[in-house]
């Protein structure tokens, strides 16, 4: 189903852009992807977007950001602003899912399971840093598909 | 030695047009230079990161009694803020802002605008209020208040062309600022009116 959720993508992207190089430099395994392997997010059907977006935001809030603490105060502050933005948006997406009864179709459920499998295939810190480093993949997909 | 150094008092937030400042009263120790450090905690830190606090380096070891939080308060969630005094190796207890601060409560002032009649062209110039802002500009021909037109202006880098005016007619403009991130608008600016250049009659 459709979800019209106001979110300040520009602020999230600005926060991510400020630390992208730093985060991606902490990800030694460049041949693997959490979000894009084996299939890109762009294959998700439009009817499933609301549901899988909510799943992805929950994934980042519950499992990714907490394992991304660094020794760099500036990076930690930017991660905090992204995490708090994700928390705010996740809440709106959750409300929207309930109202519109957005359910994930089989394909996108499979896609999300694959993302979790990719994530769990690595040690948690590497997986979290890789997922954070791939945030622009998620942001690009969201902007293109919304 | 902590009793020697009291926690900062009168801690408050000044938030206008999506710029957020923490202020507090100075801790006075005769003959000494007291410095401060400031930390923030978002809802994410409370719920998912063991209620951890993050220091704001620009305000650490500073003697100023104000700290710009704008860069760090960049989500519409409740934040907690605290400040302590530092003197040499001694540090005071934390002084914590009462309650929470959420940027959705920032106060929004009406935009500052300049309206220009450039021949038959109705132009408006808007003062920049920051990246989070866009403007709803209303304009109409005087006497035709029922036929108000609207233009949404997202970039204020240049003068905005609103309309081509009828010769000699008077046109009026007013505007409000809107912040998409918090889904709120300011009140409207005062109405400004200009008169279009009259037709030039040529004697042949």
Describe this entry's structure for a reader.
- The complex is a heterodimer of chains A (146) and B (204).
- Chain A has a domain at 46-145: Growth Hormone, Chain: A, CATH 1.20.1250.
- Chain A is an all-alpha fold and 146 residues long.
- Chain A has helices spanning 9-24, 49-64, 73-100, 106-120, 124-133, 135-145.
- Chain A is globular, with a radius of gyration of 15 Å.
- With 204 residues, chain B is mainly β.
- In chain B, the strands form four sheets. In chain B, strands 3, 4, 6, 7 and 8 form a five-stranded antiparallel β-sheet that branches.
- Chain B is elongated and about 80 Å long.
- The relative contact order of chain B is 0.18.
- The interface between A and B is medium-sized, with 22 and 25 residues.
What value does the average pLDDT of chain B take? 94
Percent of sequence in beta strands of chain A = under 5%
Biggest sheet character of chain A: none
Oligomeric composition of the shown chains: heterodimer
Shape of chain A: globular
Quick take:
Chain A has 146 residues and is mostly helical. Helix content of chain A is 66%, strand content 0%.
Search tags:
heterodimer, A: 146 residues, Growth Hormone, Chain: A, B: 204 residues, mainly beta, 5-stranded antiparallel beta sheet, 16 strands, elongated
How would the blueprint of this fold be written?
The complex is a heterodimer of chains A (146) and B (204).
Chain A: H1 9-24, H2 49-64, H3 73-100, H4 106-120, H5 124-133, H6 135-145
Helix pairs in contact in A: 1-3, 1-5, 2-3, 2-4
Chain B: E1 12-16, E2 19-23, E3 35-41, H1 43-48, E4 54-55, E5 66-68, E6 80-87, E7 90-91, E8 95-96, E9 113-118, E10 121-126, E11 133-141, E12 149-153, E13 160-164, E14 170-179, E15 184-185, E16 192-195
């Amino acid at each position: 189903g459709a979800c019209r959720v106001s979110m300040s993508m520009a602020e999230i992207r600005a926060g991510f852009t400020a630390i992208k190089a730093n985060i991606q430099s902490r990800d030694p395994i460049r041949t693997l992807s959490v979000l894009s392997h084996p299939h890109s997010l762009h294959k998700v059907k439009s009817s499933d977007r609301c549901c899988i977006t909510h799943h992805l935001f929950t994934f980042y809030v519950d499992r990714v950001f907490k394992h991304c603490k660094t020794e760099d105060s500036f990076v930690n502050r930017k991660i905090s602003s992204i995490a708090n933005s994700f928390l705010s948006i996740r809440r709106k997406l959750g409300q929207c899912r309930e109202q519109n009864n957005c359910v994930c179709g089989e394909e996108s459920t499979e896609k999300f399971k694959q993302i979790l499998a990719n994530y769990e295939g690595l040690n948690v810190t590497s997986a979290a840093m890789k997922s954070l480093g791939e945030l622009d993949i998620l942001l690009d997909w969201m902007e293109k598909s919304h | 030695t902590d009793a020697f150094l009291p926690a900062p008092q009168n801690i408050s937030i000044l938030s206008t047009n999506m710029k957020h400042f923490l202020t507090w009263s100075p801790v006075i120790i005769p003959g000494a230079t007291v410095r401060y450090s400031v930390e923030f905690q978002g809802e994410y830190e409370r719920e998912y990161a063991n209620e951890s606090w993050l220091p704001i380096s620009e305000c650490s070891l500073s003697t100023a009694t104000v700290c710009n939080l704008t860069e760090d308060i960049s989500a519409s969630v409740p934040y907690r803020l605290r400040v302590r005094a530092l003197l040499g190796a001694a540090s005071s207890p934390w002084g914590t802002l009462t309650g929470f601060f959420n940027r959705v409560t920032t106060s929004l002032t009406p935009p500052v605008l300049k309206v220009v009649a450039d021949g038959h062209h109705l132009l408006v110039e808007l003062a920049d209020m920051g990246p989070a802002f866009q403007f709803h500009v209303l304009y109409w021909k005087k006497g035709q208040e029922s036929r108000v037109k609207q233009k949404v202006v997202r970039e204020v880098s240049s003068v905005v062309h609103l309309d081509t005016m009828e010769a000699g007619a008077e046109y009026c403009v007013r505007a409000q600022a809107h912040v998409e991130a918090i889904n709120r608008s300011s009140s409207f600016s005062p109405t400004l009116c200009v008169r279009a250049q009259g037709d030039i009659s040529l004697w042949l």
